[in-house]
Write a structure and sequence with these properties.
By secondary structure, this protein is of the alpha+beta class. The chain has three domains: 274 residues, Thrombin, subunit H, CATH 2.40.10; 98 residues, Roll (Pdz3 Domain), CATH 2.30.42; 104 residues, PDZ domain (Pdz3 Domain, Roll). Helix content is 18%, strand content 30%. It is built from eleven helices and 27 strands. The strands form five sheets. Strands 21, 22, 23, 24, 25, 26 and 27 form a seven-stranded antiparallel sheet that branches. A six-stranded antiparallel barrel has the order 1-2-3-6-5-4. The relative contact order is 0.09.
């Protein structure tokens, strides 16, 4: 469970709120005030808060508590985020009890083992670490779904049913990329269960019910509404979370999120919290994603995904201008291919850096996350129909999707050949990629291009975010084999009057495009 504690935040907000109430000006409503019409419309369409009593009675027997004893030497920092993880990138323990404290208690530096600092620095003996989370039964034979981070590093796992009976559980499979896990308990009778519903038609504003084991309080029920859809919190490559305001806290991880019909539409996984507790921003994995992953974990213990072999990024306004793309909503108009892995399905099909993928099998692609999810959902050895833009024109092709390798990000280096050092335009100093530079930049032996050795302050390149150590491998769709290639290609783009140019670079092993406004003066112009 990962914690982000900011003491005093709640009090500060409360005081600010009180001040606002005192100083707010009051004015009479006018007949011409359009807000009155909007208020009346809301009142006329007002729907009372639903009663979830029957729903809870029907589904609660299938909700379980999950208790994990970690392997010897496993620390709480080895566990990834739980419901108070903030942005999914902090340190945490998935709901563990640490140093004898109940879950959720902050530890003040210098006073280990006591809440709120009342320990006077007394050293504490290391104690067993436990993780607590939630889950739910999806099959009467004892199949249970929960989060991967709840059971990560587990030595033993036990499941407590709603009737209080406890059973040892076996981990059938886990998928860290979606933070899902499947457990199995053996019982001599059929168990109550719930089915995974569909999240395809979930809409912001609809009521939802969350159930689970927050802070060890099993059988807890909370309600709220769907706040937003498709949230990417930087937790994994397939983030498309349902955002909810139903209160969920530490220990809710792995618990079900129900719609008003009692169908599971998501799995509660994370919260954004400056205080360690719920502030009304929670995230659930959509049920449609869960179904595909869980089915594979049950049948084979692992998830097999489709692989295209492209590195993609969002489209900036400068990039849209440089590539001749629509500029109304550039960051929602597709996934820009930044690099192609050699010998990949994309390379064999003829895709190139600079192409913009807008659709996979008829499903619109608005950003790189959409592309990753849609390709991952294609069964290996099956074709994916791809629509893409190249030089402003729409094209289509069929790609035979492969099985995703263990390290799908490997092999995205590009280029070809070296040349003498050169001063490039736009505020860049370029040099050939020598064996020594290749070693210093930790590049593979076959990587080639032009090394950016300096960026002039306040130049077009500097304002675009280029850095010394970046490897320039292309200008638009054209490969760069040397500094002179780069200078020539950029000069041609300036002469053509395109207004912007897209540079393909490799930075710390990651391929990406950087758009530069050509209307800004270059280093050679100053």
């Amino acid at each position: 469970m990962r914690h982000t504690f900011t003491r005093g935040t709640a009090l500060t907000l409360a005081l600010l709120g009180a001040t606002a109430l005192v100083t707010a000006s009051i004015r009479p409503a006018c007949a011409a005030d359009t807000s009155l019409d909007e208020t009346l419309a809301v009142q006329q369409n007002y729907t009372p808060v639903p009663d979830f009593t029957n729903l809870v009675k029907r589904v609660s027997p299938a909700v379980v508590s999950v208790d994990v004893h970690l392997k010897s030497g496993q620390s709480t920092d080895d566990q990834v985020d739980d419901d108070d993880s903030g942005n999914g990138n902090g340190n945490g323990n998935g709901g563990q009890t640490q140093n004898g404290l109940p879950p959720g208690f902050p530890q003040i530096p210098g006073f280990p083992g006591f809440p709120f600092g009342f320990g006077f620095g007394v050293p504490q003996q290391p104690q067993a670490v436990e993780a607590k989370g939630s889950g739910f039964i999806i099959d009467p034979a004892g199949i249970i779904v929960t989060n991967n981070h709840v059971v990560k590093g587990a030595k033993t796992v036990t499941v407590t049913l709603s009737d209080g009976n406890t059973y040892p559980a076996k981990i059938l499979g886990t998928d860290p990329k979606t933070d899902l896990a499947v457990l199995k308990i053996s019982v001599n009778h059929k168990l109550p269960y719930v089915e995974l519903g569909s999240s395809a038609n979930v809409e912001p504003g609809e009521w939802v019910v969350a159930m689970g084991n927050p802070f060890g309080l099993d059988g807890t029920v909370t309600a709220g509404i769907v706040s937003a859809l498709g949230r990417d919190i930087g937790d994994g490559p397939y983030d498309k979370f349902i955002q909810i305001d139903a209160p969920i806290n530490e220990g809710n991880s792995g618990g079900p999120l129900f719609d008003q019909k009692g169908e599971v539409i998501g799995i509660n996984t994370a919260i954004l919290s400056p205080s360690g507790g719920s502030v009304g921003i929670g995230f659930a994995i959509p049920a449609d994603m869960v179904k595909r992953v869980v089915t594979q974990l049950i049948s084979g213990g692992k998830v097999v995904r489709g692989y295209l072999g492209v590195a993609a990024q969002e489209i900036s306004p400068q990039m849209a201008q440089a590539l001749g793309l629509p500029q109304a909503h550039p960051n929602k108009d597709g996934a820009l291919v930044a690099a192609i892995s050699p010998n990949s399905p994309a390379a064999r099909a003829g895709l190139k850096p600079g192409d913009v993928i807008t659709s996979v099998n008829g499903t619109p692609v608005t950003n790189p996350g959409d592309l990753a999810s849609e390709i991952a959902n294609v069964d290996p050895n099956h074709d994916a129909n791809i629509i893409y833009l190249r030089n402003g024109k729409q094209n289509s092709l069929s790609v035979a999707v492969a099985t995703m390798p263990a390290n799908p990000d490997a092999g995205f280096q590009q280029g070809g050949g070296n040349a003498a050092p050169a001063q490039g335009p736009l505020g860049l100093t370029l040099a050939p990629l020598t064996p020594n530079a290749r070693s210093q930049l930790n590049l593979p032996g076959d990587a080639t291009g032009a090394v950016i050795t300096a960026v002039k302050p306040n130049s077009a390149a500097g304002q675009a975010g280029l850095q010394p150590g970046d490897l320039l491998v292309g200008i638009g769709a054209q490969d760069v084999a040397s500094p002179s290639d780069a200078v020539s290609a950029i000069a041609s783009a300036r002469k053509a009057g395109t207004g912007a140019v897209a540079l393909r670079i490799v930075r710390q092993g990651q391929a990406l495009f950087v758009g530069i406004d050509l209307s800004k003066p270059s280093a050679s112009d100053k």
